Every structure is written in C-alpha cells, then in structure tokens.
C-alpha cells in the first residue's frame, strides 16, 4: 500500500482511480497529476516505485488537499453563518443551501420523515370536557 498525502491508497486499484481516494482530488485533477509526474495511469498502485510515489507527492504539493481543504471549507461555512448570510442560515438549520426545493425532496438533509397529524373535533371535544 502506498501512502500519499497521509492517505493509504488501495494497492489493487489503478493509479488514476486510486488517487481519487485523496480528499480534494477528482478525476480531472488526477489526469493533470499523472501528466505532471510522467507516470502511466493504467499502472497499479502496487507496481509503483518509491521514485514514482515521490514524484506524485511532489506534484500534489501544488494542490490544497485533505486536512487543509477540509479546514478551509469549514471556515468558509462558519464565516457565512457569522455574517448572517442566507446560505449560512441554511447551513445552520441543516437545509439545502443552493436553492433546491424542500417540499418533496431533500431527504438526506432533512432526515427521516415525521408525520404531523391533526386532532379530530370529537377527540378534541372529549379532551376539553374531561379537563373541566
């Protein structure tokens, strides 16, 4: 297993797939990284030499990844909350911040459904008469 940017990459994966396990590195960035470090993208991570791992690590220094990126994102969200921006309020409430509708969707943000029922007139009348 190769360790790049503090992340253990799975040795059975190809390099172009395995590098996406690093937070902040997607498919388009992987293509740039492979070109910068002059490595064949179809090669397996287990077949990498120490020198090739070093070249990938050197190329990764130009990118904001892992802890630094997570810290930057959380600071941006915190700043939005502090200044009272609409997006900050949506983050604080745990609702979608980018204009998605919430009437029918947004289950992952809003959580499990909670049924809100109504009280029937007969039940309400019985409750009010028994409390007197």
Provide the succession of SSEs: EEHHHHHHH
Low-confidence stretches are none
Strand neighbour order, sheet with most strands: 1-2
Task: List the total number of helices.
Answer: 7
Q: What is the CATH fold-level name of the largest domain?
A: Helicase, Ruva Protein, domain 3
Q: Compute the average pLDDT.
A: 88
Distance between the termini: 74 Å
Number of strands: 2
Q: Please give the CATH architecture of the largest domain.
A: Orthogonal Bundle
| Quaternary structure | single chain
Strand % is under 5%
Q: Please outline the major beta sheet.
A: 2 strands, antiparallel
Helices and strands: which structural class? Answer: mainly alpha
Q: What is the count of distinct domains?
A: 2
Spatial shape: elongated
Query: Any idea of the CATH class of the largest domain?
Result: Mainly Alpha
Radius of gyration from the CA trace? 25 Å
How would you describe this protein?
With 132 residues, the chain is mostly helical. The protein has 2 domains: 2-63, Orthogonal Bundle (Helicase, Ruva Protein, domain 3); 71-132, Ribosomal protein S13/S18, C-terminal domain (30s ribosomal protein s13, domain 2, Irregular). 50% of the residues lie in helices and 5% in strands. It has helices spanning 15-18, 27-37, 50-60, 66-83, 86-93, 107-110, 121-130, and strands at residues 2-4, 7-9. It has a two-stranded antiparallel sheet. Helix 2 packs across helix 3. 9% of the residues are buried. The model has no long low-confidence stretch (mean pLDDT 88).
